[in-house]
Amino acid sequence: MQPWLQQHLPITAIEKHFASFEFYYGREKISMKDSGAAGLIEFLIRKLAHVVEYAILGGLLFQLLRKGLRFSVSISFFLALLFCVLYASSDEIHQLFTAGRNPKMADVYLDTAGACLGMSLVSLFSWIRSRKRGKAIE
Protein backbone atom coordinates (compact mmCIF):
# COMPACT_ATOMS: atom_id res chain seq x y z
CA MET A 1 0.00 0.00 0.00
CA GLN A 2 2.88 2.37 0.73
CA PRO A 3 4.08 2.70 -2.89
CA TRP A 4 0.55 3.62 -3.97
CA LEU A 5 0.27 6.17 -1.15
CA GLN A 6 3.64 7.67 -2.07
CA GLN A 7 2.54 8.02 -5.66
CA HIS A 8 -0.90 9.53 -4.97
CA LEU A 9 -0.39 11.69 -1.86
CA PRO A 10 1.71 14.81 -1.27
CA ILE A 11 4.10 12.89 1.00
CA THR A 12 6.64 15.71 1.38
CA ALA A 13 3.97 18.21 2.46
CA ILE A 14 2.42 15.73 4.89
CA GLU A 15 5.80 14.95 6.44
CA LYS A 16 6.57 18.68 6.71
CA HIS A 17 3.29 19.61 8.43
CA PHE A 18 3.11 16.56 10.70
CA ALA A 19 6.83 16.05 11.39
CA SER A 20 6.37 15.83 15.16
CA PHE A 21 3.23 13.66 15.05
CA GLU A 22 3.57 10.64 17.32
CA PHE A 23 1.50 8.47 19.63
CA TYR A 24 1.62 5.13 21.39
CA TYR A 25 -0.34 2.13 20.22
CA GLY A 26 -0.13 -0.40 22.99
CA ARG A 27 3.52 -0.19 23.99
CA GLU A 28 4.73 0.70 20.53
CA LYS A 29 5.61 4.28 19.63
CA ILE A 30 4.20 5.28 16.24
CA SER A 31 5.68 8.42 14.72
CA MET A 32 6.06 10.26 11.46
CA LYS A 33 9.82 10.30 12.05
CA ASP A 34 10.09 6.50 12.32
CA SER A 35 7.40 5.41 9.83
CA GLY A 36 7.38 8.18 7.26
CA ALA A 37 4.13 9.61 5.95
CA ALA A 38 3.20 6.59 3.83
CA GLY A 39 3.95 4.17 6.67
CA LEU A 40 1.96 6.19 9.19
CA ILE A 41 -1.01 6.59 6.85
CA GLU A 42 -0.95 2.88 6.06
CA PHE A 43 -0.94 2.10 9.79
CA LEU A 44 -3.93 4.40 10.37
CA ILE A 45 -5.84 2.92 7.42
CA ARG A 46 -5.24 -0.61 8.71
CA LYS A 47 -6.41 0.28 12.21
CA LEU A 48 -9.46 2.10 10.84
CA ALA A 49 -10.25 -1.07 8.89
CA HIS A 50 -10.21 -3.00 12.19
CA VAL A 51 -12.72 -0.57 13.70
CA VAL A 52 -15.03 -0.68 10.68
CA GLU A 53 -14.82 -4.47 10.37
CA TYR A 54 -15.74 -5.03 14.00
CA ALA A 55 -18.39 -2.29 13.95
CA ILE A 56 -20.11 -4.19 11.15
CA LEU A 57 -19.68 -7.53 12.95
CA GLY A 58 -20.92 -6.14 16.27
CA GLY A 59 -23.86 -4.33 14.70
CA LEU A 60 -24.98 -7.37 12.71
CA LEU A 61 -24.64 -9.73 15.67
CA PHE A 62 -26.53 -7.34 17.92
CA GLN A 63 -29.29 -7.02 15.33
CA LEU A 64 -29.46 -10.81 14.87
CA LEU A 65 -29.74 -11.44 18.59
CA ARG A 66 -32.17 -8.56 19.19
CA LYS A 67 -34.50 -8.83 16.21
CA GLY A 68 -33.88 -12.33 14.92
CA LEU A 69 -33.68 -14.29 18.15
CA ARG A 70 -35.72 -11.79 20.21
CA PHE A 71 -33.30 -11.43 23.13
CA SER A 72 -33.54 -8.31 25.29
CA VAL A 73 -31.39 -5.30 24.42
CA SER A 74 -29.00 -5.88 27.32
CA ILE A 75 -28.60 -9.62 26.67
CA SER A 76 -28.13 -8.97 22.94
CA PHE A 77 -25.51 -6.33 23.63
CA PHE A 78 -23.66 -8.54 26.11
CA LEU A 79 -23.67 -11.66 23.91
CA ALA A 80 -22.65 -9.77 20.76
CA LEU A 81 -19.84 -8.02 22.64
CA LEU A 82 -18.68 -11.28 24.20
CA PHE A 83 -18.56 -12.97 20.79
CA CYS A 84 -16.63 -10.05 19.27
CA VAL A 85 -14.08 -10.03 22.11
CA LEU A 86 -13.58 -13.79 21.83
CA TYR A 87 -13.25 -13.56 18.04
CA ALA A 88 -10.75 -10.69 18.28
CA SER A 89 -8.78 -12.61 20.91
CA SER A 90 -8.72 -15.75 18.78
CA ASP A 91 -7.44 -13.69 15.85
CA GLU A 92 -4.56 -12.40 17.96
CA ILE A 93 -3.80 -15.92 19.26
CA HIS A 94 -3.72 -17.10 15.63
CA GLN A 95 -1.06 -14.48 14.94
CA LEU A 96 1.24 -16.25 17.41
CA PHE A 97 1.52 -19.03 14.84
CA THR A 98 1.70 -16.86 11.72
CA ALA A 99 5.10 -15.81 10.40
CA GLY A 100 5.63 -12.07 10.27
CA ARG A 101 2.65 -11.29 12.52
CA ASN A 102 2.66 -10.12 16.13
CA PRO A 103 -0.31 -10.40 18.48
CA LYS A 104 -1.26 -7.20 20.30
CA MET A 105 -3.75 -6.65 23.09
CA ALA A 106 -4.17 -3.14 21.69
CA ASP A 107 -5.77 -4.74 18.60
CA VAL A 108 -8.26 -6.61 20.79
CA TYR A 109 -9.13 -3.32 22.53
CA LEU A 110 -9.51 -1.55 19.19
CA ASP A 111 -11.68 -4.35 17.79
CA THR A 112 -13.82 -4.27 20.94
CA ALA A 113 -14.25 -0.51 20.61
CA GLY A 114 -15.30 -1.03 16.98
CA ALA A 115 -17.87 -3.64 18.04
CA CYS A 116 -19.26 -1.29 20.70
CA LEU A 117 -19.46 1.47 18.11
CA GLY A 118 -21.39 -0.73 15.69
CA MET A 119 -23.82 -1.94 18.34
CA SER A 120 -24.31 1.60 19.60
CA LEU A 121 -25.02 2.88 16.10
CA VAL A 122 -27.56 0.10 15.50
CA SER A 123 -29.23 0.97 18.81
CA LEU A 124 -29.24 4.67 17.97
CA PHE A 125 -30.72 4.14 14.51
CA SER A 126 -33.37 1.80 15.93
CA TRP A 127 -34.26 4.38 18.56
CA ILE A 128 -34.50 7.17 15.96
CA ARG A 129 -36.65 5.00 13.70
CA SER A 130 -38.97 4.07 16.56
CA ARG A 131 -39.32 7.76 17.53
CA LYS A 132 -40.28 8.64 13.97
CA ARG A 133 -42.92 5.92 14.02
CA GLY A 134 -44.15 7.10 17.41
CA LYS A 135 -43.36 3.82 19.15
CA ALA A 136 -41.25 3.03 22.15
CA ILE A 137 -38.24 0.78 21.71
CA GLU A 138 -39.17 -2.85 22.15
Automatic annotation (TrEMBL):
Transmembrane intervals: 69-88, 108-128
Keywords for this protein: Membrane, Transmembrane, Transmembrane helix
Domain VanZ-like, chain residue ranges per copy: 24-125
NCBIfam families in UniProt: vanZ_1
Protein name: Phosphotransbutyrylase
Organism expressing this protein natively: Paenibacillus pini JCM 16418
Lineage of the species this protein comes from: Bacteria, Bacillati, Bacillota, Bacilli, Bacillales
